[in-house]
């Protein structure tokens, strides 16, 4: 199969995972192309955290109220950032699309733009793999990233068919400097 791996990676962990997955898929006989999704301006970590700070309260309330969590996951809006021109702006020629990113509290702003901008998603089967710092907590990590991603894909006519989340055990915002 012809597979496109479209990834956003701010500090390199998801990019590393993308290469490992591509190697495995190539060994299985598939052909892989990459799309490196890059914001026009990559923010320092603090403006980036600031942009998503509004969600922390929602995440915490969602831990104690299932009803609120469901509402939050279905309704949160991610701010977008401009991304550099795509190498593969139309993905219709690919048999499968893989999207990859870190978790940035919610869906990263660059991915939000990519999922709205990229053409040719209709009827595509899509996989999404991600890295984040902590353990794969069902509600706090897995659902807050992959369910909205599935929703955005569905709106573009695509179907999320598989997910993978790995802990990088790294969070740049917990480091000084
Ligand atoms: C703004 C921001 C928000 C983040 N939110 C989370 C989070 O909610 N949960 C988590 O486990 N890690 C979180 N992280 C950590 C990243 O997901 C983690 O470091 C990831 O592996 C980075 O991937 P990358 O190197 O491909 O950019 C966050 C990092 C940033 C900068």
Output the keywords.
single chain, 177 residues, alpha/beta, Rossmann fold, 5 strands, 40% helix, 20% strand, globular, binds flavin mononucleotide
CATH class category name? Alpha Beta
Tell me the Rg in angstroms.
16 Å
CATH homologous group name: Flavodoxin domain
Structural class computed from helices and strand pairing: alpha/beta
Q: Which fold name is given in CATH as the topology? A: Rossmann fold
How are the strands ordered across the major sheet? 2-1-3-4-5
What is the beta-strand fraction? 15-25%
Largest sheet composition: 5 strands, parallel
Topology order in helix (H) and strand (E) letters = EHEHHHEHEHE
What count of structural domains?
Answer: 1
Write the topology of this structure.
Elements: E1 2-7, H1 13-27, E2 31-36, H2 45-52, H3 54-64, H4 66-75, E3 96-102, H5 109-117, E4 125-132, H6 138-155, E5 159-167
Parallel strand pairs: 1-2, 1-3, 3-4, 4-5
Helix pairs in contact: 3-4, 4-6
Flavin mononucleotide binds next to helix 1, helix 2 and strand 4.
Q: Mind explaining what this structure looks like?
A:
It is a single chain. By secondary structure, the protein is an alpha/beta fold. The chain has one domain (about 1-175): Rossmann fold (3-Layer(aba) Sandwich), CATH 3.40.50.360. Helix content is about 40%, strand content about 20%. The chain contains 6 helices and 5 strands. Helix 3 runs antiparallel to helix 4 and helix 4 (about 65-75) runs parallel beside helix 6 (about 140-155). It is globular and about 45 Å long. Flavin mononucleotide binds next to helix 1, helix 2 and strand 4.
């Amino acid at each position: 199969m012809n597979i496109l791996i479209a990834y956003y990676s701010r500090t390199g962990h998801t990019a590393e995972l993308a290469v490992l997955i591509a190697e495995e898929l190539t060994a299985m006989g598939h052909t892989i192309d990459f799309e490196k999704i890059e914001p026009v301006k990559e923010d320092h970590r603090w403006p980036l955290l600031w942009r998503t700070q509004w969600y922390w309260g929602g995440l915490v309330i969602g831990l104690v109220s299932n009803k609120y969590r469901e509402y939050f996951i279905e309704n949160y809006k991610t701010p977008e950032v401009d991304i550099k021109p795509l190498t593969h702006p139309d993905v219709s020629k690919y048999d499968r699309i893989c999207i990859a990113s870190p978790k940035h509290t919610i869906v990263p702003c660059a991915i939000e733009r990519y999922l709205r901008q990229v053409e040719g998603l209709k009827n595509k089967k899509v996989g999404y793999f991600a890295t984040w710092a902590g353990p794969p907590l069902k509600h706090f990590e897995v659902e807050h990233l992959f369910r909205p991603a599935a929703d955005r894909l569905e709106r573009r006519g695509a179907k999320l068919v598989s997910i993978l989340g790995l802990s990088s055990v790294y969070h740049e915002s917990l480091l000084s400097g």
